[in-house]
Hints:
Elements: H1 2-6, H2 13-17, H3 20-27, H4 34-56, H5 60-70, H6 84-106, H7 117-141, H8 143-165, H9 172-195
Helix pairs in contact: 7-8, 8-9
Amino acid sequence: VSAVSTAPSPPDVASSNGLAEDAASTSAGLAPAPRPRRRTWFTGLAMALLAGLLFGCTFDTSTVLVQKALLGDTRYSTNNLDYVLSNYVGILVTAVGSFVVYLCVMRKSAYVKVEVILPGVASGAMWAVAQAAWFKANQELSMVLAFPLISTLPGIVALLWGVLFFGELQSRRSRRFAAVAVALRVPSVVCIAMSGTAF
Length: 199
């Protein structure tokens, strides 16, 4: 045991580039394979861009319908909360459909953990309350103000939560990127908030 505890630890490759695969390859004495790592990075980037695109379109339909109602179309409501249920149903159908496709593709190798079901349901319930409040904020503040504020501040809170309680962003490089992102986002949010203030 003493020999193991006093032996020099291998280079922290995972902390330098954020990939655990490199650490495993280094500890096994193997050279890391750059091509699969690069392919994984680009795949993650493409999925993040797609998720951001869909996230940005969340309120498009309800906003268009509210604008039509304000122009005199009596088929639609001017109250944003009237569109919350349809938003939830669309998200539920998309999530279930995506999960079914995932199960069909992965089959026996699919990652399905029973222990995360109840926490996932609880997280979804809290998210539903926040999403309804977001609809109301869009109506009271206008989407120009509400969307940047609400999409930015929870991300900063989640970042701090992950670093303080879950040990995320262990490397200096990742923390520097996070610090730069926060330093850019906080002044942006302040400017957006002040833009709606009458002087």
